[in-house]
Write a structure and sequence with these properties.
165 residues; alpha+beta; three-stranded antiparallel beta sheet; two-stranded antiparallel sheet; 3 helices
Length: 165
């Protein structure tokens, strides 16, 4: 008994690539999702119906520079308006770090706690048992900061530069 140590007769057929000229697998994959007119459509597997996909229209990039308003907390200009946060009291843009420091001043922060942005216009006081290992944490308090249903006017003008939806 010699060989590779496997028992049994393991004879597989070798993989064969289909011919590109053959009207087989590759052509059927290319034609899938096409109407006779050339427009693409999608099939909803749950309903079993097809519907037209909306065409993506790229946003025309404006030549105007992004606005650089002053921070409503520290008064310095905001150079990166995309990362700015709406000030809860005034509704004007503020530096992200200014908001973090304002929350840290107003909330009780214990050892191991950190003020963190948790998404959706919310901040949280997060406890890390081991600050070097940020995989395990506990959210102690959630602070609703921005109202996602009512977007600030300054944010709308910035968002319109990147997306029309």
């Amino acid at each position: 008994m010699g060989g590779s140590g496997k028992s049994g007769n393991n004879q597989r057929k070798p993989f064969r690539r289909r011919d590109k000229n053959n009207d087989g697998w590759q052509n059927s994959q290319q034609n899938q999702g096409k109407k006779k007119g050339g427009d693409s459509y999608r099939v909803d597997k749950k309903r079993g119906t097809s519907y037209d996909r909306p065409k993506w229209i790229p946003v025309k990039i404006s030549a105007d520079p992004l606005p650089a308003p002053d921070c409503s907390i520290c008064g310095k200009p905001i150079r990166d308006i995309v990362s700015a946060v709406t000030d809860k009291t005034t509704g004007l843009p503020a530096h992200f770090d200014c908001i973090i420091s304002q929350i840290a001043e107003n909330e009780r922060i214990e050892k191991g706690d950190t003020v963190t942005y948790i998404g959706g216009g919310r901040f949280g006081i997060v406890y890390f048992a081991n600050p070097q290992d940020t995989r395990t944490f506990k959210v102690k308090k959630i602070i609703e900061w921005e109202n996602t249903g009512n977007r600030a006017e300054w944010r709308q003008s910035v968002a319109d530069r990147y997306s029309l939806t």
